[in-house]
Amino acid sequence: MLKEERQQLILQILNDEHKVIASDLSKRLAVSEDTIRRDLKELDSLGLIKRVHSGALRKGPPVVDFSTRQTISNETKMALANKALEFIKDEMVVLIDGGTTNLHLAQQLPLSLKATVITNCPHIAISLNNHKDVEVIMLGGTLFKESMVNLGIDTVEALNTMRADLYIMGIYKIDAQIGISVPSLSEALVKRKMVNISTEILAMVTSDKINTVSNHIVCPTNQLTYLVTEQLNPDIKAMYANQGIQVIDE
Question: What whole-number distance in Å separates Cα of residue 4 and Cα of residue 135?
Fold first, then answer.
């Protein structure tokens, strides 16, 4: 088998199974582990996969700015938001951070809702302008324009005085073993604080983010209470459900 054919097969396996182990690939493709490691290193250098210890993960969707993400997969994001609405009840304190799927959720909240919403995302705060019975608490900080959220020490210090019933966490990358991760250290620190002050945590995740990884870990995946996503392969769904997470994928 030519190298190009082998690497295409690795990409196909990775796309189907979301994760590959070098020793397993070595047996399946009948080549040495050193050959597989060289393949994975080359594919990683091309930006096609994410190398991790002993193997590789899918790269997942590229990190792009907020305005660009607002044009991607809107129908799917709206469907996920509709599923998540049932978890938001009157009199709750709901913490919502950045993300275009989270913005869809905020835009679909019923006008009759009586709740408190804490957010570090200006777009989400503005979207709740007409909800007369929703108190909106806008967290300050330094605006991180790529994600359109406020970050920094001011954001963390404000969160020290708060508690939330439900945290709607925007997800960049999520892997059942490695955890929830983002490309920015500052955003990871703020999200980690949000996790620590929340009773329950809900994440809405499009399937292309499942079993992918970025540079800075926010928290283990088992910190999630609810995972709202597209229909998953039963084996992949079990990886999350076995951690005590309620997976809503239908």
Answer: 57
Query: Strand pairing of 164-169 and 93-96?
Result: parallel
Please tell me the pTM assigned to this model. Answer: 0.79
- The CATH number assigned to the domain holding 13 equals 1.10.10.10
Whether 247 and 240 have beta carbons less than 8 Å apart is answered as yes
For 60-91, how does the pLDDT look when each residue is reduced to its tens digit (9 = 90+)?
A: 666 556 556 555 667 899 999 999 999 999 99
Structural domain span for residue 122: 66-248
Q: How many Cα neighbours within 13 Å face the side chain of 2?
A: 3
Q: Which two tokens stand for residue 223?
A: 């910190």
* Cα–Cα dist 34/36, whole Å: 5
Q: Are residues 54 and 147 in the same domain?
A: no
Please check whether residue 171 is in contact with residue 209, taking contact to mean a CB–CB distance below 8 angstroms.
yes
Q: How far apart are CA 114 and CA 218, in angstroms?
A: 30
Beta bridge pairs of residue 57 = 19, 50
Q: Which two tokens stand for residue 248?
A: 């809503």
Q: Please give the structure tokens belonging to residue 26.
A: 């070595």
